[in-house]
Structures are given as C-alpha cells and as structure tokens.
Design a protein that fits this description.
CATH topology: Rossmann fold
Radius of gyration: 15 Å
Largest sheet: 7 strands, mixed
Oligomer: single chain
Distance between the termini: 37 Å
Strand content: 25-35%
CATH class: Alpha Beta
Strand order of the largest sheet: 3-2-1-4-5-9-8
C-alpha cells in the first residue's frame, strides 16, 4: 500500500502543506519553458502546484497515491491525472517538462537514479526536468516515510549522462537555505 493511500497520512499531509505551494518556483521555470508547453507533475498530492502550473502550461498531474487523485478529481472532474510512481513512470505519453516539488526525496538513491533515466525516456527532445529537494546531507525516516536531503552537487552522480544541469538555486521554504531547485535539460 502507498503511504498516502492510508487516509490519515493523506489528511495529515494536506493539513501540513496548506500554507505551502510552488508559486515562487514558476518564474524560474518560465525562464526555461515556453508557455503552453506540456508538463507532467510527479507527486501532485492535493494539486496545489498543479493548479498554479495550469495557468501557464498544459498540465498532467500524477501521483502514486490513488487517494490524492480521487481528492483532486472531486473538484476537477475533467482533470488530466495519472496513477504513476516516480520511478517506473509507466506511461507511453511524452512531455516537454517533468516537474516535482519535494517528491523525489522520498526515493532511495538507486530509485532516484532510475527515475532520472525514465524521465529522459518520456521527455520530448530538448525537454526539461524541474525538481526541488530539501537541502542537507542526511537521510531519515519520519512516521514510516523516507526523506533524503541532498546538496545540488551531490545529485550529479545520479542524474546520468542524458541530462545537462542548466540551472540550480538554493532558496528558503521554511528556513534560510533549506531547499534548492535543479533544472535539467535532456540532451539530444
């Protein structure tokens, strides 16, 4: 069972994240992604970022927890959402961008490396990946859920040869310099 398919975990997450969204991430994304481009959000949760992104892009939401897809579809019955895990990304569809906000940090390092390879497979030529992570050098399990903290440079060995890093920036989400985003471009 997916961690967030347990009702209490999904409710706790929705409550905890109610004050956070990715609105500050849109301007750096717009620097590298043309308005109207196709975008797949990994780990959409309750859909706050998906709603913001839909103002600029043709969005598809995804999550590995059916609970979050059901919650989102209640308010948006015609939404384009997929049940996908962030490692296998089992879809034949292609996108101009893959986006995640503090999602890939739940994967093991091996799973993250596999995810990056699979992301390259489903990106259109020249496509980009935009991901955020908690910044640090530790791994912890909280209430049964894994969190791996990275430094931007520590991702280089996991990204693989199919991507180039085109931008990275450290920013504050909860505390000074606690987060960073990384933007990757698929090599042709």
């Amino acid at each position: 069972m997916n961690y967030f398919d347990e009702g209490k975990h999904a409710e706790d997450y929705i409550h905890m994240s109610r004050k956070y969204d990715g609105r500050d991430l849109i301007p750096p994304l717009q620097t590298h992604l043309t308005e109207g481009s196709s975008l797949l959000e990994l780990g959409m949760g309750p859909g706050k970022d998906l709603d913001l992104l839909s103002q600029y892009y043709t969005v598809t939401g995804s999550d590995s927890a059916q609970t979050f897809l059901d919650i989102y579809r209640e308010k948006h019955p015609h939404a384009d959402v997929l049940l996908l895990d962030a490692v296998t990304l089992d879809t034949k569809r292609r996108f101009d961008c893959i986006y995640s906000n503090k999602v890939l940090m739940h994967l093991t390092r091996n799973e993250l490396e596999r995810s990056f390879r699979r992301q390259a497979d489903i990106l259109n030529p020249g496509g980009i990946a935009f991901h955020t992570f908690w910044r640090g050098d530790k791994e912890e399990i909280f209430d049964g859920l894994r969190f791996i903290y990275y430094q931007p440079e520590s991702l280089n060995s996991l990204i693989g040869p199919t991507f180039s890093v085109i931008d990275t920036q450290i920013y504050k989400e909860s505390a000074k310099d606690d987060s960073f985003y990384i933007i990757l471009k698929k090599k042709d």
